[in-house]
From TrEMBL:
This is Exopolysaccharide polymerization/transport protein. It comes from Roseibium polysiphoniae. Signal peptide: none annotated. It holds the Pfam family GNVR. The keyword rRNA processing does not apply.
Amino acid sequence: MIDIADIPKLLMRHLGLLICAPIVLIVLAIFFLSLRTPLYSSTSELLVEPEGQNFLVTETGAAGSSQSLQNFDIDSQTYIILSAAVLNEVANTLDLDNDPGLHRVGLRQKLFGTADRRMSDSEKRAATLGSLRDSLQASRLGRSFVFQISATHADPVIAATIANETARSYISQLRGNRSEALTRVSTSLGQQARDLRARVDAAEIAVETYKAENGLISTGQGGLVVDQQIQALNTQIAQARVDLEKAKTTYNLIAPLTPADVEAGGIPQTASSAVLTTLRIQYAQIAQQEAEAATTLGASHPTLRELESQLENTRRQIASELQRIKRAVKSQYEQAQGTLTALETQSTNLQSANSKQGQALIELRQLQSEADTSREIYEAFLKRSRELEEQPELNTNATRVLSEAQPSSSPNGPRKSIVALAAGLFGFALAASAIIGVAILRGQISSEQDLLRRTGAPLLANIPSERSRPSTNAHEIANRFFGASTDRSNQRYIALTRLAYALRQAYADERPANILVLSTDNSRDTFAFTREVAIQLHEMGEDVLYAAANQEKTKVDRDRLTSRSQISASGRDGIEFLTQIASPRSKATLTTTNSADQFIGSGLSRHLTIERIDTRRKYASHGALEPAADDFLIVDGGAASQSPILPVLLRHCDGIILVSSLGKTSIGSLDKTLAYLQPWRERVIGNVVLEAA
């Protein structure tokens, strides 16, 4: 995975693509705009009255009925505006069948020759309506009754004319359709009113005939005589039942009363009388006097005896009055019962006498109800029919044009500068996405942090690539444009010197030291870099032996760097092959001595090209390797996965330098190299990053 912090560096390594992609898209956008015919739009505003089909209201302008009958989907008017009837009228008025702006010839028609075929009138009109519908747009403003009609055309004047004519045609169609609907509904209502009139007459005749046949006599608004008698009798019975209940309640309250209850004041309101109230007061006064006398006088005192006699006499009077009241209440109760019984008997007799007319009366009421309903419906239809006969001559529709469309002074769409800017931004985003996506799919090392995290070793140097011709890399061009340093040779020299110092300091007390340089990428060439490090060490006063792995790819790249002819190594012995490589450079046969074999391991001379770094002859000479206490042996092991002697080199080395290239070395190759080095991971000194050429 790519860390977010690594994305800027990843994009900078592909700066050329990030610059070229926006430029290409900007050029394409400008080219498209130059070929595109500019279109102009004009908009007219239309107020639509939501009156609906209010044909069956009973009163013109009634506020209550308008809400229920005018509640329809106003949004459907957008489809009516763009209907074929409206557009056909617009096409006829403006002669749009011959308008080249609506019949533009496309690129496909020009290429395949279909533009010259003559169309019939119906085909031309269908094409005109289709193009006109595509160029028109009707929309409702929020939840209001205002609609906008926008027309698009290559000519701004024609665009405004089409928008205005569409609005006028819609209003004309709306009014014409409403007038036709009113006439049609009026005719239908008139015919239905005549049918209803016939039904009303038949119902009324049936009512009168039924009355005559069954002797149902009526007294005007009072109805039938029998009905009036039964109704009055029922009213009296209801009142008698109320009176009976009152008398019964009073009787039930008074019947259980005793003189003691009266003396205690427990008299119901319905049983109270002036005499009984007076007696109860008199009894209370005498009882009080007796109680007072009993406290001061003896039991046989005459005064006390007189008071007791008065008290007993008053008690008898209370009992006598109470009995009188009970008899009166009972008499009222019995009278109410008798009245109710008499009324019910009379009602029963009347109903029995009128039983034959009851069924006839029910049927009469049904007939009368049907006749009344038919008459009400007939009167409503007749009234509305006469109103609708007059409405077609009145223009009450408030639909109108609020503002007419005006020719536009600027074409549709964004300005060319905005389109170019958007194309550039899209190109940059597309290129950046492609770079990041490809990097994720390839699974390459994208940054130094990623490399350090996977290897666990520090970064020793970041070495720029060496070029013999002027660089055309977009990154360097950008650096030069922004004033950054472009001296790649100086940067490379500093990086190599830093690496040489790092090796000297790491093995200051461990001489001699064998340093193995391994490439984590099969396609990565480390020959020039490794040899330059050896030269830097020699120039610092160190005795350095340089050994390069005998691989065909290393041979080809080394010959390219030294501008020598390539020598085929196919099927040759290692010593003979190394000798032929070294001969053009040293003009002598390469000789490997026993001291060299002892230094790098027995039998390795046929797999390695050995040379002693000698600054007097600059890039070394191949000669006899005499025994010497060399400080460093720098071994270019090439790609770890392609070296046949990698185990021997790892066994005899003191330190390992891993060489990778950001954006080129795959994670799989790095993991495979680290797997080879697992037993010797502690010998890894660090990483060197080579910039891709």
